[in-house]
UniProtKB/TrEMBL annotation:
Record's keyword terms, sorted: Glutamine amidotransferase, Hydrolase, Lyase, Pyridoxal phosphate
Pathway involvement of the protein, from the record: Cofactor biosynthesis; pyridoxal 5'-phosphate biosynthesis
One GO cellular component term noted in the UniProt record for this chain: glutaminase complex
Active site as annotated: 86 (nucleophile), 176 (charge relay system), 178 (charge relay system)
Record-given protein name: Pyridoxal 5'-phosphate synthase subunit PdxT
Gene Ontology molecular function, alphabetical: glutaminase activity; pyridoxal 5'-phosphate synthase (glutamine hydrolysing) activity
Domain of life: Archaea
NCBIfam families: PLP_synth_Pdx2
Binding residues for L-glutamine: 54-56, 113, 141-142
Gene of this entry: pdxT
Length: 193
């Protein structure tokens, strides 16, 4: 039976995440049906969820107004996996230090928006990630800094700063794992390796 995968499709790299989910599922001997989520009522049927990057203020506003936010919280309370990337990480965090972002508190971390610089400071770096045997090519675009880590595991650091974390079923990355053809971060988040 196929897994039901949901990608929050308010904004951001939706099709790239969908491709990476399918690719990771195949690599783990599974198949995944991917649904784009723009309204409430879909998350409860999902086995796994992706929260893409984009603009965290806009994503947060829509998750609240469409009443998707509480459904994501129930999904995590049930122990089902979530991969939250870049702006997704900002929304998933416990605190983003910005009143315009209503944090979901899925990850026990504090983040600082745009702390890795502006659009022109975007960069790609090979990262050692706990659970992956080879470095992962990581693309950072106006990425958030994870400034404080509470009860969460740091999976990767760049320049001595955490850039990937796990808190129970939720994995958050400052970078964009969907922008390379490598689906191992999706594999790690959804299949554990
Ligand atoms: N700078 C964006 C924000 O703060 C995040 C950037 C991204 O998702 N690439 O919401």
């Amino acid at each position: 039976m196929s897994l039901n995968a949901g990608v929050i499709a308010v904004q951001g790299d939706v099709s790239e995440h969908a491709d990476a989910i399918r690719q990771a599922a195949t690599a783990h001997g599974e198949t995944a049906d991917v649904t784009e989520i723009r309204q409430s009522g879909i998350v409860p049927d999902c086995d796994l969820l992706c929260m893409p990057g984009g603009e965290s203020t806009a994503i947060s506003r829509l998750l609240q107004s469409e009443e998707i936010a509480p459904e994501i919280q129930v999904h995590v309370e049930a122990g089902k996996p979530v991969l939250a990337t870049c702006a997704g990480l900002i929304v998933a965090a416990a605190d983003a230090g910005d009143d315009r972002v209503e944090n979901l508190g899925l990850l026990d971390v504090t983040v600082e928006r745009n702390a890795f610089g502006r659009q022109k400071d975007s960069f790609e770096a090979p990262l050692s990630v706990t659970g992956l045997s080879e470095p992962f090519p990581s693309v950072f675009i106006r990425a958030p800094l994870i400034s404080e880590v509470g009860d969460a595991e740091v999976l990767a650091e760049w320049d001595g700063r955490p850039v990937a974390v796990r808190d129970g079923p939720v994995v958050g990355t400052s970078f964009h794992p969907e922008l390379t053809p490598d689906s191992r971060i999706h594999g790690l988040a959804f299949f554990g390796d």
